[in-house]
Every structure is written in C-alpha cells, then in structure tokens.
Amino acid sequence: MSTEAALIHAGNIQTHFAPQLIDWQRQHGRHNLPWQQNKTPYRVWVSEIMLQQTQVATVKGYFTRFMQHFPTVQSLANAKEDDVLALWAGLGYYTRARNLWRCAQMVMEEHAGQFPSSAEVLVTLPGIGPSTAAAIASICFGQRISILDANVQRVLARLLCFEHPVNTTTNKKILQECATKLLPSESLLRKDSKAMSTYTQGLMDLGASVCSIKQPNCIQCPVQALCLAKTQNKQTALPYKTPKTAKKQENWYFVWLENAGDILLMQRSKELNGSNVWSGLWCFPQLAQPWSAKAQPADAVYSVKHELTHKKLQLHIARQLVSNRKNAEQELHKLLKNKHPENAGVQFLWATPEQLVTLGLPAPISKLLCACKKHTNQASLL
Ligand code: SF4
Q1: Ligand 1 neighbour 210 (Cβ under 6 A)
Q2: What pLDDT score was predicted for residue 381?
Q3: pLDDT tens digit sequence for 54-73
Q4: Which residues, other chains included, contact 170 with Cβ-Cβ below 8 Å and sequence gap of 6+?
C-alpha cells in the first residue's frame, strides 16, 4: 500500500481507533508495573530511559533498586556519577545512565526541579528523544502527542499495511504523521482528562503484549477490525526494514592482575580506550595487544563473545598473579604509555572481591569473570 493510502486509512479509522484502544487498555492493559504506581514525571522518565533497548522483565528490578537509591530527581542530581553507573551495571548502553544523571542536574538547575510539561521542551534535555519526550508529556501532562518507538512503528505498519521500510528517516516522518492522525480527538480529551495518558499506555501495551514481533495475537487485538494487515493476511510480513550492514568483528584484550585476592582495575574513558563503550565504568585494564610481559607470562587466558549494537567482540583476558603491586603497575603503565602517552597519569584501583560487586563492572566483563571462575574455581572472586 502506498504511503498516501496509509495516511488516508489513518484518517478514516481515527474516530474508532483511539476510543477502542483506550477502552481495551482500561480493561486489559498493564496496570501493575512499578513505574505506574505513584506516577510522577521523574518515575516515568527513569522507566522510559531504562526501557529503551531493554525488556520490561529486566527493567522492573533495576527500576525498583534505582528508586530506592534515588527517590527524587534532586537525589539523582546530587549523586556521584560512579554511583549512578554502578546501579546501571548490567543494563548496557551506559550513555543512557550518564545522560540520566546530567538531565537530572539540568532539571534542578534550569527548571527549578520540575520536569517541563511539553514534549518540545523535554526533547532539549540530555538523553530525551522525541518518542520519550512524547511519552512523558502525554502520560504525565496529557499533551496530545504520539509516541513512535519501534513497537509503535510495528503496530502502525501492520494497522495501515505500510509496505515500506520503517527505519528510514522519510518513512519515520510519514508514520509520525499517521500516528498524529490516530490520536484521540480534542473533544474526547475534553470529556476525559485521563484519556491521553491511557491512550499512550494502550499503544505501548498493544505493541508489547498483542501485536508482538513474531506472533501477533490478532484474535485478542482490540483494533483487529481496523487492521489492513490482518484483512490481507500480511501481519507477519510487516514491518519491512532495510537490511542492516554486517557488524564489524574486533578482539579486545584485557589483563587481570591479582595480588593477595585483590584485582587491578582502571576507570574507562574515551581518551584511554578510544571509544565511549563502558566509559566511566571500572574495568580490567584494556591493552592494544594480548598481555605478553616477558617477565610475567600469563598464567591463563579466557575468552567470551559479546555483541554491541555496531560490533561483534571477542573479549580475551589474561590472568596473572603478581607478587609486587608497584612493579605490576609500572609494567602496565609502560604498556599504556606506549599506546596512550597522554594518559601517563592514569589511576589504578586494587579492588577487593566485595568492591568488584559494588563498583558495577560492565555486564560482559562480569561474564568474563564468571568464565574465569568456572575454570579456576576461584569462588572468592565474585
Ligand atoms: Fe497487530 Fe494483528 Fe492487531 Fe493488526 S490485528 S494491529 S496485526 S495484533
């Protein structure tokens, strides 16, 4: 179906779509998620950032722990970056955590501790994209604006039988226009002050639990009578996407230097590691080449695979027991200085096993530690 036809269909079904979705959400939607209790812009914002790239089941525990430590935007703004990153460890995409922290500070400094109520202002804050801004503004402040995350793109592509790639800028704009046409009418919103919030939650619930990626449950769908993909039996063929380019493969080499049960760590940074991956987190020192100090050959080497959005990594770690901490640091320093002369002043931390847990290592590095533990039976390491 052409993009024009999709826009026309969105206009034709508008009067039915929103009311049906709202009724369904009230009867069958999700109402017990942690961020739906004691709903505030702060809690909705944190949940929305955590839910980017991460499943609801995983986010629930992280959200609850995060709220216990940082119950208000002020407490988050006053926190140390290290503490925020430690609570985020395992969720991945750490830029989200750093932006969350910076955004909290901006809300305190530039908005007197209150989240702006319009998507147009929210989107100017760090880490808040158009769809997240629309989610906060519509759920918390009733603004008439549509979210358009990957789930909603899929629902719309099917509902409107949109047979074009949904991941191009041009087509995303068309889908945004369609999404705007489908919004609850002004008169409905005047009669029902909670309708906009329920509508947005309904779209999220529909994408998450009914119109799923592999097996859309059309029999249970509240808008099945309006859905062109169902009529034409094209549900599982949609949405179309342009093929992704193959991920680059890389080997990353780490060294695990251990003395009296403590392990040497360094804080990652773009300057030191040449990328933003896990920036700000404590980690094993990363080298440009495998650890091969002549005086101290590695005792053992372990490897695990890990995928980033744009890379396939093979992570290798060489384990080395050392008797003298100063000598080990100097040896490592020399290797780092050769590769990164500007980082001659880098700081080391000899972490105890307890610190390894509280510092919040990147999840793949914890996985690497587990692989080592399995082989070495070093129960005290984790
Ligand atoms: Fe998705 Fe099926 Fe509902 Fe269409 S009818 S929106 S394909 S669940």
Answers
A1: yes
A2: 42
A3: 999 999 999 999 999 999 99
A4: none
pLDDT tens for 299-347 read 778 888 998 888 999 999 888 888 999 988 888 888 876 665 555 557 7
**Is the Cβ atom of 154 under 6 angstroms away from ligand 1?**
no
* pLDDT-above-90 percentage for the chain: 66
The 10s digit of each residue's pLDDT in 268-304 is 887 777 778 888 888 999 988 888 765 556 677 888 8
> Cα(216)–Cα(206) distance, rounded to whole angstroms?
10
The number of beta carbons lying within 10 Å of the beta carbon of residue 291 is 23
Q: Where does 114-185 have alpha helices with state H? A: 119-122, 130-141, 150-159, 169-181
Q: Comparing C-alpha atoms, which of 88, 118, 109, 110 is closest to residue 100? A: 88
Tell me if 229 CB under 6 Å of ligand 1. Answer: yes
CB atoms within 10 A of CB 310: 10
- Report the separation in Å between the CA atom of 180 and the middle of ligand 1, taken as the mean of its atom positions: 19
Q: Write the single-letter amino acid at 149.
A: D
> Measured between alpha carbons, how far is 230 from 13 in angstroms, rounded to an integer?
15
C-alpha span between 312 and 259 (Å, rounded):
32
pTM of model > 0.70? yes
Count the neighbouring beta carbons within 10 Å of the beta carbon of residue 361. Answer: 23
Catalytic residues: 48
Atom of ligand 1 nearest to the CA of 220: 8
Spatial distance between the Cα atoms of 300 and 368, rounded to a whole number of angstroms = 13
How far is the C-alpha of 32 from the C-alpha of 42, rounded, in Å? 18
CA distance 282 to 102: 19
